[in-house]
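Renewal narrative, Specific Aim 1. Our central claim is that a sequence can be written position by position from structural information alone. The example that follows is taken directly from our test logs and has not been curated for this report. It begins with the C-alpha cells describing the chain, in the order in which they were read.
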C-alpha cells in the first residue's frame, strides 16, 4: 500500500488551526537556498529542481527498487525555511512590513527514510545531465532535525501570516516556552497556482527553547 503523508503523518503535516507543540525528528531533504522576493518570476527556478529530483527518485525506485526497505509513496510537499538578510536585521523595525526583496530562504522537499545519501547524490548527477537548464548544481541532500517546535495551520494569504504567528507566540508564552528566533518554516499544502488565496493552507512552524 502506498505511503501517503497526509494520512500516515498527520501530526507532522496536517495540524489544526490552533497552536500545538510537536517534536520533529531528523528527516532527509533535497534543499536549495536563495534570496529575494518569492513573488518574482525567478522564484520558480528554485522550486523546479526540487520536484525534478524528488520525482526522479520516486519513479526510478518504482521501476527498480534497489534500496533496502523501499515502499511506494506520495511525494512530500514543498517546504521553506524563511529569514531576512543580516543587513535587513541591522535595520529591522517591527512596526514596518518586511521588504520581501530582503528575504532569504531554503526550500526543500523531504525524502523517505530509505533514500540513502549515496543514491540521492547519484540521482542529482543523472538529473543534472538530463536537465541542464535547471539549478540542479545548487541542490544539496541534507539531514535536518527541528526538534521542539510549535506549529499551526494557517488558512489564507501568505501576507497575513503575522496574525497566526502572534497566536502561536502567545500560546508559547502560556506554555512557558520561548520562540528560538524569527526563523520559521512553512509547509505548502496548497498549490497557489490552483487554489484561491483565501483558501490556501500552509503549516507554520517555529522552534522553541
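The sequence written for that structure reads:
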Amino acid at each position: 500500500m502506498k505511503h501517503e503523508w497526509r494520512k500516515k503523518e498527520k501530526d507532522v503535516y496536517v495540524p489544526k488551526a490552533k497552536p500545538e507543540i510537536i517534536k520533529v525528528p531528523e528527516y532527509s531533504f533535497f534543499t536549495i537556498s536563495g534570496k529575494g522576493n518569492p513573488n518574482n518570476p525567478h522564484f520558480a527556478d528554485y522550486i523546479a529542481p526540487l520536484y525534478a529530483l524528488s520525482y526522479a527518485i520516486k519513479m526510478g525506485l518504482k521501476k527498480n527498487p534497489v534500496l533496502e526497505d523501499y515502499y511506494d509513496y506520495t511525494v512530500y510537499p514543498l517546504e521553506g525555511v524563511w529569514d531576512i538578510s543580516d543587513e535587513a536585521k541591522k535595520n529591522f523595525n517591527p512596526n514596518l512590513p518586511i521588504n520581501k526583496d530582503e528575504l532569504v530562504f531554503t526550500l526543500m522537499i523531504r525524502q523517505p527514510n530509505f533514500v540513502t545519501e549515496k543514491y540521492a547524490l547519484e540521482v542529482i548527477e543523472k538529473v543534472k545531465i538530463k536537465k541542464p537548464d535547471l539549478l540542479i548544481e545548487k541542490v544539496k541532500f541534507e539531514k535536518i532535525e527541528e526538534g521542539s517546535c510549535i506549529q499551526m495551520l494557517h488558512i489564507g494569504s501568505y501576507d497575513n501570516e503575522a496574525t497566526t504567528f502572534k497566536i502561536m507566540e502567545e500560546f508559547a508564552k502560556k506554555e512557558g516556552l520561548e520562540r528560538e528566533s524569527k526563523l520559521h518554516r512553512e509547509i505548502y499544502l496548497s498549490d497557489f497556482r490552483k487554489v484561491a488565496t483565501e483558501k490556501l493552507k500552509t503549516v507554520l512552524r517555529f522552534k522553541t527553547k
